[in-house]
Amino acid sequence: MGASRASQQPGADRLASGGLGPASGARPATAVLFVCLGNICRSPQAEGIFRQQVAGAGLQERFIIDSAGTSSYHQGELADWRTRQASAARGVELLHRSRPFDPADFERFDHILVMDHSNLRDVLALAAQPHHRGKVELLRSYDSQAADSAVPDPYSGGADGFDRVFDMCELACAGLLRRLTAQPQP
Length: 186
Description:
The protein is an alpha/beta fold. It has helices at residues 5-8, 10-16, 42-56, 81-88, 105-108, 117-124, 130-133, 159-182, and strands at residues 30-36, 63-69, 111-114, 136-138. A four-stranded parallel sheet has the order 2-1-3-4, sandwiched between helices.
């Protein structure tokens, strides 16, 4: 039916998803985590978009991609139906189930992309080591055309808000992918 929870853990993904370690002679995978409040709107949408962009570039073996929320309100739930609908209309399938951000994610992921300043503050508050803080950025910092640095939460609004969030995430994820594929891998 579905993958076991152990195989869904980001740490396990480094090998299971093709993120081969240096001993194999391949580049280590770059682990990317998208974070919003409940992990049912913005971050799973960004995760799905980034997965699609990575697959379209034929780079699946170079990335581990996941999403999480700063709260556990919706733990275990699929993305909001409006997020799934907006994503499906653009050919992006969202299968992720919500999970809370875990401080261990600082060690599991190379890049932690948050959706707004509240998420930024909440994630940075959990950073136990100075180097953890350097992994956390606003997703829209990768969209050179963005007038605002935040991806607004569409949860309390209408369906058009989910479409606008999709557009924002799509542009920012494309910028992120360009940046991550332009820099030399360790």
